[in-house]
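Protein folding task:
====================
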Amino acid sequence: MKLALLASLIGAAAAFAPASTGGARATTSLNAEKSEAIPFLPYPENLKGYIGDVGFDPLRISDYVPMDYLREAELKHGRICMMAWLGFVAVYLGARVYPPPPEWEGLPA
């Protein structure tokens, strides 16, 4: 029993020992450029040349949709969010439309 336990411990320790390669060094051809933002993913090629590019495109959307469209959509959605925030704050601070149109009677906020 003790011999079996000792043999299994030696075998387990040998599993984590570095393997000797006989002095030869292995090389790989997987030297693809990695993303700066997400180092374990390859760099998205469609992002090159754009301002603020750190390689953040984890879903690879830029491979399927043109970058010009994505930039315009981001600007549009950002502006809509700014207007929505401004409207929320204005109503919260008490801005109202007087007299309210008849269609607005009974609406909350």
The helical segments are 2-15, 67-92. Residues 67-92 form the longest helix (26 residues). The CA atoms of residues 92 and 109 lie 8 Å apart.
